[in-house]
């Protein structure tokens, strides 16, 4: 099968090319080196491409029906009942671009995905080439460089805050760039320890209580790991909410419908209870 070029440069590192097979294998070409790598297959998002192909069909349902996306969609529809024409949204550390694609399909004037890891960015570009969405774009960059892309009406921050060593500073960065709202889907710490993730004892970082998470080894190669730091800090839930408010979002709330239909069960004995993860929304007025 021929290699199809879908981009010209990646931050000056060379050209990127992708080829597909029935298993959505990907070939990355960087600085003239072609590397077949099974880790570059899709790991999280089942995106429906324009030809009906699914990027991760074993999930069983498309990205557009994922409870976490539906929760964000409902929030955005409440914040912008008139629709999304003329608005910009950014999807930080977008992994394979699933949320960015669906935001573009909602009608945002621009849906930008920022992803640092080359293998994940290759997947984003694979998707970009196969959906007719002129309002969708991806850049390979560190999310700490967010300000250079201008202001956004909405910042969507899912799966990245808990991979940062200084999350308070990053929330303050998002507040400088957000025109109206920030949606943060993240793990958080609690006073009572949880068994999952091997978190540290309670500690303090940036003046906030929380717990440290040790990132897995070979973080440059792990598609779901941090980028450039060996440990990350999970802010205690109550102080996370306070930090969002103090950063410049007078309206702050936690949105529970991302837990699906069984909210009480999730909070008392399910995913929310075991994994300490929720959706936190900050809104400027």
Descriptive overview:
The structure is a single chain. With 285 residues, the chain is an alpha/beta fold. A hairpin with a 2-residue loop joins strand 3 and strand 4. The strands form four sheets. A seven-stranded mixed beta sheet has the order 7-6-5-8-9-14-13. The protein has helices at residues 67-79, 98-106, 118-128, 167-177, 237-246, 263-268, 271-275, and strands spanning 4-5, 17-18, 27-30, 33-36, 88-92, 110-115, 136-140, 152-158, 178-187, 203-205, 208-214, 231-235, 251-255, 277-283.
Number of helices: 7
Query: In total, how many beta strands?
Result: 14
Topology as H/E string? Answer: EEEEHEHEHEEHEEEEHEHHE
Radius of gyration: 19 Å
Task: Describe the main β-sheet briefly.
Answer: 7 strands, mixed
Low-confidence stretches: 1-40
Structural class of the helices, strands and pairings?
A: alpha/beta
Mean pLDDT: 87
What is the assigned CATH homologous superfamily?
A: Vaccinia Virus protein VP39
Could you say what the CATH architecture is? 3-Layer(aba) Sandwich
How many domains? 1
Layout of SSEs?
Blueprint: E1 4-5, E2 17-18, E3 27-30, E4 33-36, H1 67-79, E5 88-92, H2 98-106, E6 110-115, H3 118-128, E7 136-140, E8 152-158, H4 167-177, E9 178-187, E10 203-205, E11 208-214, E12 231-235, H5 237-246, E13 251-255, H6 263-268, H7 271-275, E14 277-283
């Amino acid at each position: 099968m021929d290699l199809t070029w879908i981009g010209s440069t990646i931050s000056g590192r060379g050209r990127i090319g992708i080829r597909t097979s029935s298993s959505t294998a990907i070939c990355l070409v960087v600085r003239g080196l072609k590397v077949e790598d099974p880790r570059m297959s899709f790991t999280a998002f089942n995106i429906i491409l324009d030809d009906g192909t699914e990027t991760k069909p074993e999930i069983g349902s498309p990205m557009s029906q994922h409870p976490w996306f539906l929760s964000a969609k409902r929030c955005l529809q409440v914040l912008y009942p008139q629709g999304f024409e003329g608005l910009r949204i950014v999807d930080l550390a977008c992994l394979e671009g699933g949320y960015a694609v669906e935001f573009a399909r909602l009608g945002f004037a621009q849906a930008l995905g920022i992803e640092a890891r080359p293998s994940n960015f290759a997947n984003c570009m694979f998707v970009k080439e196969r959906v007719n969405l002129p309002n969708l774009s991806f850049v390979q960059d560190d999310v700490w460089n967010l300000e250079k892309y201008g202001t956004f009406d909405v910042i969507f921050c899912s799966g990245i805050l808990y991979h940062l060593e200084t999350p308070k500073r990053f929330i303050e960065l998002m507040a400088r760039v957000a025109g109206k709202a920030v949606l943060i889907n993240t793990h958080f710490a609690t006073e009572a320890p949880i068994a999952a993730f091997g978190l540290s004892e309670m500690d303090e970082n940036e003046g906030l209580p929380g717990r440290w998470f040790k990132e897995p080894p070979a973080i440059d190669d792990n598609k779901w790991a941090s980028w450039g730091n060996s440990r990350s800090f999970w802010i205690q839930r109550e102080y996370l909410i306070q930090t969002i408010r103090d950063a410049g979002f007078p309206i702050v709330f936690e949105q529970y419908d991302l837990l699906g239909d069984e909210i009480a069960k999730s909070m008392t004995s399910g995913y929310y209870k075991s994994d300490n993860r929720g959706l936190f929304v900050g809104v400027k007025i």
